[in-house]
Amino acid sequence: MQIQSVNNTPAFQANQLRTVYKFAKNTGKHQTSIDIYLINKSDSELIDKLLLKVDLKNRADGLAIREKQNVNDAIRNILTKAKMLNENSSDGVYMAVQNSDRVIGFLDYTNGGMPLLKNLVALRGKEQNNTRLNLFTEFLQRVGIKSKESIANYSEEKSKGNRWLQAQGFEVPQQIRYARQRLLMPQENVSENAAKCEQILENNGLKVTQYSEPRRIELTNLEF
After folding, report:
1. What digits encode the pLDDT tens for the residues 109-135?
2. Domain-embedded: residue 223
3. Is 221 inside a domain boundary?
4. Is residue 96 in some structural domain?
5. CATH number at residue 184
6. What are the pLDDT digits (tens) for 147-174?
């Protein structure tokens, strides 16, 4: 991916995995879009610019599932991880972009046999839940179903993120108690839960397209 600076923000060709459009109910006209991209060390210039901007805002964490103490720490950890991955890595980092110009979320996972959802961060107001669902559904579709394994997550018990994951089909297995609760989505339920998430997005007025192969799309003047 070739990256260059345009007006102090990056222009780059990214691997687009998924796009959704939301249309106004009355007019049927395009209102907003959310795109999901796979980022890795090929996007190092972009990632470095985003890392410089992480702490410029105090980001709300109501819709964050995270391993770090706060959302900015989680984002910094996700972006740093992306710089160590390549297109052949079994682990991955997703980035959500609204209207092709604003970064609004991240997801990262490891996949050393059983996929492990690490962080899921959705930013920016009323579109937060659609952002979170799109990142999560893309993960289920592209990683969870294909792995033919159950999916795991470790999150704080009684947290909003923990409750949200259980609402999407994660279960609490019999286990020794840990500081962070282990959740599992059994493999036999992954496809069904992915379909449920897609239906929720459709009910929210979104038209979803998942690309069978990543598409290289140029973005310019990204805000964060």
Report:
1. 999 888 999 999 998 777 788 999 999
2. no
3. no
4. yes
5. 3.40.630.30
6. 999 999 988 887 888 899 999 999 988 7
